Amino acid sequence: MSAVPNEALGPGAGDAVAERVAPETLMRRIHEQYRTPLLRFLTRLVLGQQELAEDLVQETFLRTWRNLETLAADPRRIAPWLYTVARHVAIDAMRSRQARPAEVSLPDLNRLSSAEDEMERVVSTHTVRLALQQIKPEHREVLIEMYYKGASVAEAAARLGIPEGTVKSRTYYAVRALHAAIGPTEPS
User: Fold this and answer.
1) Tell me, what DSSP letter sits at residue 7?
2) What is the pLDDT of residue 98?
3) Residues 155-182: pLDDT tens digits?
4) Hey, is 4 helix, strand or coil?
5) Looking at the structure, do residues 89 and 12 belong to the same domain, yes or no?
6) What is the domain extent for residue 63?
7) How many domains, the chain?
8) N or C: which end of the chain has fewer CB within 10 A?
């Protein structure tokens, strides 16, 4: 239980008389007072991505819950602390999204060939083999491990003697290079 001035916890809570407030009650009051303004603030920070902003509000309140005792000691710090944490959470989220490579759109593999058309399968196999020769050897190695040998990222990393992150990165760039080497698969 914490002593918290009422005016720091919401409108109509009375004047600056301190009262004992249960942590759950304090958290509920903070949530009621700051959820909407934090959501607007974070939505602007993440350029209108509403779902991401809602996730970031949740993360901000989770961190608030973990630091509730410290915040209850000085209620005047609640708002500045919340907005600072929300900003840091948004920055962390954007950095983590930039660290991951963007998803690659692959051609529809169902349109490449069917099992019934042997000639198409032969042509497709030949096309992929030629394209594999056009990409960098390190990209070719990782594609062979991942797609032809069916290795997991960890297995491919162990076989090639490189870190797992490098396998993921090379796979991403190898698929793009292979796609570029094959060229358009749609009939003109």
Assistant:
1) G
2) 78
3) 999 999 999 999 999 989 988 888 888 8
4) strand
5) yes
6) 2-99
7) 2
8) C
Calpha distance 58→64 (Å, rounded): 10
Strand partners, 16: none
- The DSSP code sequence of 38-78 is HHHHHHHHTTT-HHHHHHHHHHHHHHHHHTHHHHHH-GGGH
Give me the residues paired with residue 19 across strands: 4
Do 115 and 134 belong to one domain? yes
Q: Dihedral (C-alpha) 97, 138, 105, 168: value to the nearest 10 degrees? A: -30
Do the beta carbons of residue 39 and residue 58 sit within 8 Å?
no
53-58-62 Cα angle (round to 5): 145
One domain, residues 7 and 85:
yes
Predicted TM-score (pTM) of the model is 0.46
CATH code of the domain containing 148:
1.10.10.10
